[in-house]
Design a protein that fits this description.
alpha/beta, Rossmann fold, GMP Synthetase, Chain A, domain 3, 2 domains, twelve-stranded mixed sheet, four-stranded mixed sheet, 15 helices, 24% strand, globular
């Protein structure tokens, strides 16, 4: 018979788990009132604690840090920047030595993830397991222990969904997105406390007419899901095909662009909340009621931004340190996202700094090899903010190294929208110095398909992928 420690048994106990969630909710609310000095004090204490933990329990971190002359004795004077940066490849190549709990191993976790029967279940009755969407071509495995999962849910309840007790019953919570696997989004919302929420998923792979029929029948109080999917619901509401009256709308996963936000507001009379999450850390940042950037949860994460700074604004690639997950801690872990962060005070008074833009992943940059041998690029934030009246949806595909082709879904006069889009893109190309080098074409379509691998909408498809499916592009 396998030996199970008292601590392990307690960790899996539902009563202990619920107690941890309630405690987490109380603490998460209290922490929103901290001043900047208190936030940084707790952040530093938790950093030292998680560092001591990995040096004791993770053979990977212990060996890596020893190669840099770092051991337990050095923690007192150590700064975060003294540690080497890691990435997903390093983690997955050394997974069994990377994790801090010996009950975890890569082979068993992969088998668990592949079995459809495990949807909604815990690994070894204790661990919440998910995989990344593999946008870099290499999926990652991410495990949350009981305490880490309760902390994550506490942050989501208090800082994202902003819990409202309903004396007439539970709030109806709808999730629209990929729901047929152990993905980050569905893992979080499907585990929402049953005494607060009546949860129902609406998979994006479901026939669209059926999905609309089902979500209308459910009549959710809260809609959560991929920004592109929520936007599609908004268009149906505007057309009169839906009559939903949600009190709160939460968007994540793919970019919530300016035109998407306006459409959602027009359709539902609700300002959508932009929520930044990933498999690595499922509650990194969310908008406050001012809707002017996403406040980072710096009490439980450390966000480093490489590359550049201007005044109070930092921009570049994101390096993440998680302070709450003792099963699989990430210390100076390079993310795929590019962000712009500001330390300017928010009108809401929060001490937590804000992310002002998220550029998506590195492959969303468009690179152009020019005739003089130089390489130019268009930053994804320029494309995210692309907006012209009457443009309901678009996708930009790099069909040749120096050829951009835009698919347009329009309302009203398609010819006028197409002409406006061409003028707007010409202005962007001029600002990048690419107006003579890069050809730009447009095509009006009825709909733009979601990515078949991830179930998400791809705003930008670089050349390497775009060539595989374009066919008649450029007509």
């Amino acid at each position: 018979m396998a030996y199970v420690s008292v601590r392990s048994a307690l960790e899996c106990c539902p009563v202990v788990s619920w107690a941890g969630l309630v405690t987490g909710i109380i603490n998460a609310v209290r922490a929103t009132k901290w001043d900047r000095k208190t936030v940084l004090k707790h952040q530093q204490e938790r950093f030292k604690d998680i560092l001591a933990h990995v040096l004791t329990h993770s053979p990977f971190y212990k060996t890596l840090y020893a190669q840099h002359g770092i051991g337990l004795k050095d923690i007192g004077d150590l700064q975060l920047q003294d540690l080497p940066v890691i990435d997903k490849a390093m983690m997955m190549d050394n997974y069994d030595e990377f994790v801090c709990d010996r009950r975890l191993n890569k082979k068993e976790l992969e088998a668990f993830l592949l079995d459809p029967a495990n949807l909604g279940k815990k690994f070894k009755r204790c661990f919440t397991v998910m995989h990344s969407s593999g946008s870099t071509g290499r999926p990652g495995i991410f495990v949350y222990d009981v305490d880490a999962w309760n902390l994550t849910k506490s942050l989501a309840i208090t800082r994202v969904s902003r819990i409202r007790f309903n004396r007439f019953g539970r709030q109806r919570l709808a999730f629209i997105g990929a729901a047929d696997g152990l993905y980050a989004g569905i893992s979080l919302v499907s585990d929402a406390p049953g005494f607060l929420y009546n949860f129902k998923p609406f998979p994006v792979c479901e026939p669209w007419d059926l999905l609309l029929e089902h979500i209308q029948a459910f009549s959710p109080d809260i809609i959560s899901g991929y920004s592109s999917s929520v936007y599609m619901l908004a268009l149906e509401q505007i057309k009169g095909n839906l009559s939903l009256h949600p009190a709160r709308i939460i968007c994540s996963a793919d970019p919530l662009t300016a035109y998407m936000r306006e459409a959602v507001k027009d359709a539902f009379r609700v300002e959508p909340v932009n929520f930044y999450a990933s498999s690595e850390s499922l509650c990194m940042a969310a908008e406050c009621l001012e809707h002017d950037g996403l406040h980072m949860n710096e009490d439980w994460n450390i966000f480093e931004v490489e590359d550049g700074a201007v005044g109070n604004v930092r921009y570049g690639s994101l390096i993440l340190t998680t302070l709450f997950n003792r099963a699989q801690p990430l210390i100076r872990y390079r993310m795929e996202d590019h962000v712009t962060v500001t330390s300017e005070p928010c009108a809401c008074g929060s001490a937590y700094h804000r992310i002002m833009s998220i550029g998506g992943r590195s492959e969303d940059f468009l690179y152009f090899k020019l005739s003089d041998g130089k390489t130019a690029f268009i930053h994804p934030s320029e494309i995210v903010e692309f907006f012209v009246p009457g443009l309901e949806k678009f996708q930009l595909r790099q069909v040749e190294p120096l050829h951009l082709h835009m698919l347009l879904v329009t309302s009203g006069d398609a010819a006028s929208v197409r002409e406006a889009a061409q003028r707007r893109m010409h202005k962007l190309l001029v600002s990048c110095g690419l107006e003579k080098a890069v050809r730009f074409t447009t095509e009006c379509v009825d709909e733009i398909p979601l990515d078949s691998r991830t179930g998400k909408f791809r705003l930008v498809i670089p050349f390497e992928e775009g060539t595989e499916s374009m066919g008649t592009a450029g007509k």
